[in-house]
Target: Carbon monoxide dehydrogenase
Amino acid sequence: MSEFKLIPNEENEAATARLLETGAKVGADAYQFRVKNQTPHCKFGEQGICCRICSMGPCRITPKAPRGICGCDAHGIVGRNFLRFVAGGAATHSDHGRAICETLYHASPDGAYHVKDPDKLIRIAKEWGVETEGKDIYDLAHEIAYLALGEYGKVFGVQNWLSRAEAHTQELWKKADIEPRAIDREVSCSLHMTHMGNSSLPEALIRQSLRTGLADGWGGSMAGTEFSDVMFGTPKPIDTTANLGVMNAENVNIVVHGHDPSLSELVCDYAEDPEMIALAKEQGAKGITVSGVCCTSNEVAMRRGIPMAGNFLQQENVVLTGACEAIVVDVQCIFPALGPLSKCFHTKFITTSPICRMPDSDYIEFSVGTAAEKAKQIVKTAVLNFKNRKPELVHIPQLKSKATVGYSLEAIKKQLDTVTNSQVDETGTLKPLVDCITSGVIRGAVAMVGCNNPKVRPDSAHIGLMKKLIANDILIVASGCSAQAAARVGLMDKAAKDLCGDGLKRVCELADIPPVLHMGSCVDISRMMVLVSDLAKDAGCHVSQLPVVGCAPEWMSEKAVSIGNYVVATGIDTFLGVVPQVSGSDQVTNLLTGGIRDWVEAAYTFEPDIDKLGDEMIERIEEKRTALGI
Ligand code: XCC
Ligand code: SF4
Model:
């Protein structure tokens, strides 16, 4: 019998309830209350049949009014709304990627940003046909960063990194005419296509949705991942802890939240500065604890072992502990609620990016040139705020799990090598994994990704599905808030092997890995794309034939749909537990759940019943195995 126990969801929920009691004492609002005020949601919005892209409208489709004033029907309206949703997500990820490229462009040996993984930079340069011999590594970094920035607006041609895909995938993209051109062009073209009086043909709108998604996954997000690795180091397995109990009542608590590691990396650096620690002690604290929320947390966890306080729907909870001196944010997934909420406590809500300005925050603008000085100012602000803490409001739930994180593709290959003792080149091989899948020791793999969403009991779908899948010998790779959901209950503890079927358990023991592999933040789903492409190459089949599926059971953001589109377009069936706002058009729904299979050999499944969703994924994996004859 297994001794290992996960933290039950009930305990997490009880912790949240207790935090809301503190909130009630100080008159704090919380998303749980706002959800009540917002339900039931607008039916037109839910089905995607409200159009407000011109001022003859807004127009809403009903049985009595089947067309908008311009004559657009439900299919056109739903398709356009969907494409705009994807464009929003692709723009967001890709702009994050662009910021990373800009930071790399300014990296210097005596500045705040360095080249920590020169080998990776050289690998990319060779991939892009850039001469590396005899070049200073920083000159090379600037040259590559400049070229990478050029990918956003390249005049002709398609994204450089498409060549990483398996050959058949590349052919499919070409045939379907969905190879992404310049990243900005695809976003811009999507807005153009959806302007009043342009496309209303679902097929054209969905094709562009896939193309825009691909510009994200194989363009902007990949740049975010690759160049973050170059500057901050390619992740390797590292131990950390997760859940709200990582905050320390005796220390100054700084919580980093958002997505761009350029900020959080430096905040972490200064929090370790002896001068800052001495200052914290002067204020009566024992030290400084930095922990993270959302993808920024994933970034610093996998590179530095910084503990993970929680995911998206935990962001208010960290303030409600009463022990958060500062919540420092950069971009994306930040509740505007943090402003008013922080005012109920001593917490400083520090915004740092011109992209993300919010009322009731202290704005300390962060830029490449001033990064070091601003990071120091931020840490100091937090430390000096310790004395303003109200002890009677402090309550940190004592929930904490162990986690091993940091499974970049490079790290996975290396880990597999240790199992087989094979001598491989610098980029490694996935052959041992192929063998495990072929023999059936592992039945397949699921990429668990995406947010949590109050429409689903928070994290219950992520955790429930992961438990079910690993028990069925299906390996999980996870990223984003899904990864954090896993970490905070213990699924990234190596001991969680006890919850696996016999085959997967044995692989976990041999390879010394947890059954749920943390592959990083949401831009790092680009790592998963290269993983499946390499897996297909090593297995000698197409991506769409692999017993591998993708799943976002609790997603909420535009970015998540952009991700879904590039995952599907890469040939991986994708399962969503929250239905996108397309149900108002059977034509669009049928395309997404079936029709696009003709183009990319994969499609979506929408299934809000999480048990069924899990069964369907297992079924699909087994179907793929049967088709391969394994
Ligand atoms: Fe945001 Fe990336 Fe979603 Fe989490 S998973 S809520 S998008 S932080 Ni990306
Ligand atoms: Fe209405 Fe057409 Fe304008 Fe949309 S584009 S708001 S459907 S008139």
